[in-house]
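Worked Example 4.2. Consider the chain below.
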Amino acid sequence: MDAITPLLSDPAAWAALITLIVMEVVLGIDNLIFISILTNKLPEHQRARARRIGIGLALVMRLVLLGTIAFIVALTAPIIDFGIVGSPDSHGNPQFETAFSWRDIILIAGGMFLIAKATHEIHAEIDAYQHGREERSAASAFFWVIMQIIVVDLVFSLDSIITAIGMAQDLEIMVAAVVIACVIMYVSSGPVARFVAEHPTTKMLA
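Applying the procedure from the previous section yields the following structure tokens:
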């Protein structure tokens, strides 16, 4: 509490908090839309529960990552460098980034997963109209959706927390911003999920 009290009277801390909340919400939109797309595949009575679990996991992962700031910062250090690719510019800097950190590798792998998942969803949406939807048991479908949400949450949480660490100096501000952003995600999850479900074109774009 003693560490928080000075922050409450510091205008710079409030400005950092508001800025970070906005940034976390913006970064969380992709996470929320993907959760909505995944949960909309479930029976109606399971969707709200799956969204709650998904957003809860997103909050837990973000808080766990904030508790390991030293580890997260270490993830940004290059571990692989293929040397200079292309001619250096006028300042002597390489034209293309060739050094990769664990963060880069995780985000690249996550990006490949999202591309593969998006491609699968588009094919499934088209095939559903041509051949009818594939039926799965409710338990199996729910478990599979939660597993995919965990992967998506991990990718988005890592990027979100690295951004938070770069924008704020105080752990209390980061935690507050993450919690508030996740509450906003939770409140808006229902309307977003309904909008995505009612507008197939939006789902394709998402």
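The chain has a mean pLDDT of 77. Helices lie at 5-8, 11-39, 44-66, 69-74, 102-131, 138-167, 171-198, 200-205. Compare this with Example 4.1 before moving on.
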